[in-house]
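Take a careful look at the sequence and tokenised backbone pasted below. I need to know what the token row says about the fold.
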Amino acid sequence: MTVTDSFNEIFGNKNRILVIMPHPDDAELYCGGTIARLVGEDKRVRIVKVTSGDRGSKQEKVSAQKLRSIREKEDREAMKVLGIRDDDNIYLGIGDGEIENDLPTIGKIAYQIRKFKPDLIITTNPENMIIRFDKNVSWVNHRDHRNCGMSAIDAAYPYARDLLFFPEHLREKGVDSHKTVEFLFTDYYNHPDLVYIDVTKYIDIRVKAHAAHSSQYSLKDARESADFFTKSKSFGNKRFERFYYVLAD
């Protein structure tokens, strides 16, 4: 299989990319190299974290309030590494493990879409209960990830577009109807509509940003994650992040 870089094809005519992820560190894990490349190409990237990961304690004894503080502090450092502006780093404040595909969640995301007006949205796999990486490796698709992806789709259409949904948003200056029709979904590995983004030059940034989440990952963990997700025999010496691309006009 020949793998080619789709960066210019996907992003060449895009200026504003909205990344909607369920937890701090998900952006780095699934698309950290792509984000770093977008910033390096002078694209505006806004990253929305639906939760602050306040229950991701790995069985350690810590309060949710304390963990939220820790994880947001780590996340802000990671965003600096990626080059994300402070005003483009958004926390929606929903509890970890509590993301629902419901109107309150959809409304929060629709507001962000209406405010930022993205040309393309990157979010998580909304479909598969079990993610199959290859014939030997599979994992459970976290419920927060499924519901985040589904709520992002619903927020983009019809809720961010149609003015009679959440009309209270429109009282704020600069918050208007907006229609987004292009999506990249993370955590797909065998889909026929996969696209590949060359992140070879941005691996070190991805690793450093990922390792900034030190309550969750060591530098060694971050390097191993980058190798796992971006290396393949079919990639040769290059590194690629994979996405399922959708044009839903």
Remarks:
- The domain at 7-247 is CATH 3.40.50.10320 (Rossmann fold).
- The mean pLDDT is 95.
